[in-house]
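Next up, sample data.

:::
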Amino acid sequence: MRFFRQSDVPSGPARAEYSNQSWRGFFVITALMAGISGFCLLPKGSNANAGLEAGLSGSIAIFFAILTIQRWRDCSHPMNWLVRDSEEGLYFNLRPAVNRKLAEDYPTVVHFPASSVSGIGKVTEHRRFPDRNTDEKNNIVYLEFRIKGADLEPLADVLHLERRKMPDHGGWLPHRTAEYPIQVVDGHTIRVAWHRLSPDETKALQHFQALYPKLPARKIEYPSFAAADAAGREAILADLWETGHVETAERLMRMHRGVNARQARELLDEFADH
């Protein structure tokens, strides 16, 4: 295992590279709202509210167009990749471009030789969280990379530091969220959330499992947050925080304790440290 700063990552050819392409979702919403706005402007008899409806949907379209441009700029950055496979092995980028405005106080790319990868497989998490008046089921797809002969504690420490940074993207339309899709589990496995990455997990598995040993697909069922007692909820919150589900953990903590976002982060830090 070797760490690199973003500027020092070897620039050799990659066999495959996987990156966040979430700007496409914003683009779909923008196109949809623009289409609704145009439809509202079509002559349809005596619809007195046509202008208002068109203006409202048009304003929403403009808002999402700005978000789309911001996210597209992030996703087009050369360091937006999250996982890179090369002849030398696997690179994991702990600071993808959507988080790039966070200060790089330490190396944020880690490399593992191909010989240290003992298996790659798919994991699906099933979690249940309260959403309005229902208990909503969330299915999250990961690829897990089993590593042999390496102490992953230094990597876990860097991820711990990353999740405690407070994003500040600036600009006249700031967004405070950051993404933390990489986690270390059971001391010898790296797990990467794949739901926003391209190519998708099916194509990625086809590539990886042609080159590395295959792990069997697994499903993990987690207890319902709503059905858990106070101690159980705090354990779920700590696990969410430590495994990169930052936005979900914050939302549930604010609901659970009635606190603001900053207080929620401070409490989550305390839970995770115990």
Q: What stands out?
A: The chain has a mean pLDDT of 78.
